[in-house]
Amino acid sequence: MKRREFIKLSATASALGLLPYEVGAALKLANTSLNCDISNRKLVLIELKGGNDGLNTLIPYDNYGYYSGTLRPDIHIPVTNYNNMAVDISKAGTNQDLIFNPALLEGSINSGFKGLYQDGMLRVLQSVGYPSANKSHFASIDLWATGNDGNSWDNGKESGWMGRFMEEAYADLFPSTFPVGIQLGSSNTWLGFHAEHEHGTALNIDGQNSENFYTVLNGLAGQAPQSIPQNSHYGTELQYIVDTDASANTYAKSIQDSFNASGATNLVSYPDTDLADQLKTVARLIRGGIQTKVYMVTIGGFDTHNAQNQGSGDINGRHTDLMNQLSTAVDAFVADINSDTIGDDIIGLTFSEFGRKAIQNGNYGTDHGEIAPMFVFGKPVQGGISGVNVDLTEATSSNNWQLKTVQHDYRQVFATLMQDFLGASDTVVDNAFFDQTNQQSFTDNKLSEIIKSTHHVDASCYTLRLDDVAEESFWAAYPNPVYDNLHINPLREAITIMGYRVVDSIGRTVKKGKLNLEFGYGVIDMSSLKAGVYVVQLSDGERTTNKKIVKAAV
């Protein structure tokens, strides 16, 4: 299949081309005892589009009577079996006594979100929002995407916080061969992925068929213009289209190769839903060795002004269906990535642009609100509950029945993951997020309980700007995970010979030799090694560095 046939017009996914396969070169990996090997780490964001009703997602049982009798007499969630529905029975009678929506107990492998919590892989973050909430869908999601807090555009820019982060961290690695971010399930590229100088390209990664990956530029007839006017708006825009086309072709090839790589399969069965298909694709791409750092998937339908519940006392309806889709899809995804070692390097989370009012409306639904909970999940996550139950008495007729107190600023959450899981320096985090209102860095206001100590990045390992660390990492390795041939690319032109050693998980050297880099790369044959985690050590005669490499099962 020709590459041009492989990439066609898409309205369901987008990719930001900021991260090449050399991503490991921008990270400090030498001291593995301090959790410095972070080159394989990835984030998976799940957008609950439309404004999720947090109050019917996690029910505050400490004031259940007021919730069910006064605020939501028709659409409250009945607690039929406390021990089964409680998030954590050890919190009974406290201000952290929460009840799962029963749909979040659904999952054929891990018993849904409840099972993930019991296994110590789910953290509940209560009352997430930002200081000056905007209850417009469009404005609110733009604020989330740009890193703003609604007070001033000084707190966010026309670019997105994720784009600024990647552009700052990996500025000298362009042009890239891998997209830094891949978005599925939305007709529009998320503003959060747009950097100040680099912008996204649209790619379809729909379902489990690589022939469905396509770009808008396929429909353009003829060859790209050979002569582009300079110093004009027309020329600038035309050059952008041409560059986008070239990048999309490059990204499509890397995505196709990863999707179709030997062993790039899903190891569990997924439910037949759109969200599950998106996460299924993410797991397959990761197992195929692509080094994309951030994935974003989307499930819509959360703007539940009506028919949130079917009728009085009947919790079946739109919101229950959505919770079921979320729980069963995440259940399968976590089981899939934990079937081998890739789950050690992946954290997922849910977010929504806002919550819903505390009080029901007249249509068995709820109207736009402010705060809502977030879920953070995965093997690196420290399970538990952060924050206390919402104060339902805060919502009154005088404030339009809004729950307003923000316990966790969404920027705190992302800043914590950027630094303590992805290893970003203070400078890089501040470029993505900075509280101009209070003149405060979010590196001084992180959530220390999110990440397990075994996966928490030591401060001595934080990445600096690329030009500060380029001398510390002089080679790149791909694909990772690897099935057969591990490609080694030097990042300094003067290097022609490298010595290497491959060490297994108990410290034994299982392979060693020299690489001739005359043609710009070398290859280490990993096909004979058992599946597992290895450390590849390379030396150029002046220095030695290590990288963690996952050998995948064929």
- What is the count of β-strands? 19
Overall pLDDT: 81
Instruction: Label the overall shape.
Output: globular
| Span of the ends, CA to CA | 24 Å
Q: What is the count of distinct domains? A: 2
Question: What is the radius of gyration computed over CA atoms, rounded to a whole number of angstroms?
Answer: 24 Å
Q: Sheet bearing the most strands, described?
A: 10 strands, mixed
Could you please describe the fold and organization of this structure?
With 554 residues, the protein is of the alpha/beta class. It has 2 domains: 3-461, no CATH class; 474-551, Immunoglobulin-like. Helix content is 23%, strand content 18%. The protein contains 12 helices and 19 strands. It has helices at residues 3-6, 64-71, 82-85, 112-118, 137-146, 161-169, 233-259, 274-287, 318-337, 410-420, 426-432, 466-469; strands at 13-16, 42-48, 58-60, 98-100, 122-129, 181-184, 201-202, 294-299, 346-351, 372-377, 384-386, 408-409, 475-478, 485-490, 497-503, 509-516, 522-525, 532-539, 544-551. The strands form 4 sheets. Strands 1, 2, 5, 6, 7, 8, 9, 10, 11 and 12 form a 10-stranded mixed β-sheet that branches. It has a 4-stranded antiparallel β-sheet with strand order 16-15-18-19, with no helix packed on it. A hairpin with a 4-residue loop joins strand 18 (532-539) and strand 19. Helix 6 packs antiparallel against helix 11 (426-432) and helix 8 (274-287) packs parallel to helix 9. Residues 1-34, 199-204, 214-222 and 464-472 have low confidence and may be disordered.
